[in-house]
## 1
Amino acid sequence: MPKPGELYQRDRERHPPALTRDYKTSVARSPQYSLISLQNSVSEITGPVFGHNDIDPIDNDLILNYAKPGESPIGERIIVHGRVLDENGRPVPNTLVEAWQANAGGRYRHKKDTYLAPIDPNFGGCGRTLTDENGYYFFRTVKPGAYPWRNWVNNWRPAHIHLSIFGTAFAQRLITQCYFEGDPLIDKCPIVKTIPSQEARDSLVAALDMNGSIPLDTIAYKFDIVLRGRRSTLFENRLEGN
Amino acid sequence: MVQKLDYLQETPSQTAGPYVHIGLAPGAAGFEIYKHELGWDIAGPNAKGERIRVEGLVIDGTGSPVKDVLLEAWQANSDGNYAHPEGGGDVEEGFRGWGRVITNFETGEWAFETVKPGRTQGRNVGVQAPHINLWIVARGINVGLSTRLYFEDEVEANAADPVLNIIEWERRRATLIAKRSERDGQIVYRFDIKLQGEDETVFFDI
């Protein structure tokens, strides 16, 4: 069996460029020199390892993980679930997936969020879980609301959940956002539109998943995540480069 | 026509946004939810080697500190081993080598405590100078930025480091070297990261 080697090159044309003028905050925060390309060393192909001692089983249930006993947050009850795969199509097991989001009114529980929609006393807005041996993960939560933000005078973020994923290598580290099928704000959002291609933008929209829904209880959305794949070292690399 | 390649494509990145702390450091956002927040102890109690503090600012193109940034650190132990099955060798019990760092919301200053890493194996031959890998996310950063922190007092190792040496402009290599000082009996390394402008920090496509 060939050993796994370096990661496939990240397709920078699929990701947003650093400088995206219509997302104004990027203008002063984007490096102007080109990134220096590194072939992977041990520093890039390794990454932190997490286990079930690091988290609690309730951490992936945003309906219960901050609610007072017997109460629950206001909003549409949803399941967000899917698989973490690599570019070779293989599941990524035991990897940490963290999520954070606004409440159903579009307000974040954060000391820097001053939007006039109220905080929900029963909603924290964050969760985390480890994928199982098949790369599968799930969260239960309430559907986040849209909210306004300062960019153009009248910008609204589509409903979204932020997701942070580790993989097995620090070079796979990824933060992204999951949107919801049918939301008319997606196509108007300057942050969504930092991603150049429509196909790549569509890959961030979770599909309504009636089969995954629990009748009379919770509606489901399916959201698969793909991390960078690794080459198999069929032949040793030439001894050059960094 | 040809056969279709069946590779999947990586999920595109989106900014971590201004409220990244809710997800990754909820205590800093202003509430307690988890029994254990992850990433606050990089080295653990049993790590050998020199105990150090690393501190700095992330500075934007206007010269202002970025106050809502979150950094992650990934490093080897003092023997040069990463806490990972492919990490080169054993590490001390409790050594994770990974940490999360957030800023003071008023000043933008960040700091973390750890042990100084050892030299790690090079990609093919030789060794890499001691370094800490950093990953930086914030509102306005569309794809997390990767850089490396090297140590001022490792002059010889730095001069031979394969990664520093592929940076064509010698003057830019200096942006990756943390400055060493001693304060109240503690070793402190200063590492300011400039996102753009004069002396922009070197960022890597890893």
## 2
Amino acid sequence: MTAVICTKSLSRWYGNVLGLNDVSLDIEPGITGLLGPNGAGKSTFMKLVSGQMKPSSGRTSVFGERVWNNPPIFRRLGFCPEQDAFHEGVTGWEFVKGLLELQGFSSREAADRAVRALEFVEMISDKDRRIRSYSRGMRQRVKIAQSLAHDPDLLILDEPLNGLDPLGKRKIIRLIKDFPKAGRTVLVSSHVLPEIEAMTSRIVLIHQGRILAEGDIHYIRDLIEAHPHVISVECSDPRRLAGILVREEDIARLQFGADGRTVVFETHARDKVFSRLPRLFVENGIAVESITSPDDNLQSVFDYLVGK
Amino acid sequence: MIRTFRSVFGFYLMLAVRAPRARAFALLTFLPAVLAVVFRLSFPARSVEVLGVFSDILVVFYLQFLLIILALFYGTSVCSEEIEGKTLAYLTTRPLSKSGIILGKTAAYALLSAAIVLISLAVSFFVMNAGRLSAGEAAGTYLRYGGVLLLGIAAYTAFFTFLGVLLRKAVIIGLAFGFGWESILQYFPGSTQRFSIAHYLKSLLPFTPKAQGFSLLTFRLEPTSDAMSLVALVLITGVFLALACLVFRFKEYISEE
């Protein structure tokens, strides 16, 4: 398959700060998830491939052409920015229609396309309300509508699930999964693994401006599961819980928390243990107050992958 | 570029008309019109000279305050409002020429400024001159004042658009330029006053015989010819718009976010 986005030794500095470091990547049609903690360089990468920034060194091409200062290429590209930013004084429909006119459509066609895009993101019943009166989820869906209303071949979505409630996330995940029909390409970023996992199995891991790994979700999962995961359970009888846990397989180191009410343990099989814990609690009558996972974030996984 | 200009002009004219800022500027701009009505109603039998002096004050208010305020806030916002509002990505990821974006947006804002100023000027001018000038004289003089204000809006908006595209804190520099440089330099003797936009605008104003006494508009003015003033104002507008387009084409704004 031919790569839609192609970067070669791409780097970008902000003054003395390195935003992206020597990234060479080919992205093919379908959905590709860009996964990394905040500040990893995801937005920088997306701004470079969407022509909003010039590379400091290296090169980037989309559909085989340079992107910076090349307006015709934006007929084939849709971009949804991370920021919750709008021209607030207009309605959702006027906003999408106005941007479609900027895209080059006649007023009538822009009006029709705006309606179709708002239908697609399930915002048609609120299309005539001012954007400033929308909820966060509605604003996010309007942002997505403007990015796909002109039927782009490449859709770039920067953290489209940020700040949404679970229902809103599910809706947007479904929209994104429905989009890449007929060979179209979606590049979507997030700092939450399960969110990316829900959209695609093709993942690029980015951290501190570098690509750490790329490939199928199972490969990434294997990398992550090789990393011991810490789980902390606060309950009324930590000693009894510890006694039960030590008999379980997949539990590595176990210790008591400083407060005397918490059991902290490590596992290499995070998902398996999480699915088994509720049954253990119920069968043994343990009253659990909280379950937390102190390192349930990508940062610890990335620290592990880079060998910290 | 023409397609970009037209679509950007239409979109931003709609946004500008609806913005609360437009209502605030319209209220401010209609202040002299209200003052003119109050003045005429309060002193209906005032002498021609008093009316002339008051007219002069109004023109100074339009020329050296309103024009600069409108051009400054609209011109500098052409670029800065997109950066501060984080909406620039909606423009720069469309198939739009960057020059077309600047020209279309600047034209939309200049047109709105011109409409506000010309309507207000029409009210205040005809109220002040009712019974003083014949209909033909009044229309001719109004057109001349209106033309000068239009040229002023174009030149100042172009200059402030350039400042806004180039600098992050353009409003502060613009205020210093509009109310410092422009206010002071136009009263300098000799050719120094030609380094201000206000000099060319004042050179094009119609001066009535009563202005041979003291007038804020003619004080220390060593007028440039009409033709030269016109050329200077068109050049200032063209050069600063071209520079604004050039800077916007090559400068990266996204990193400023």
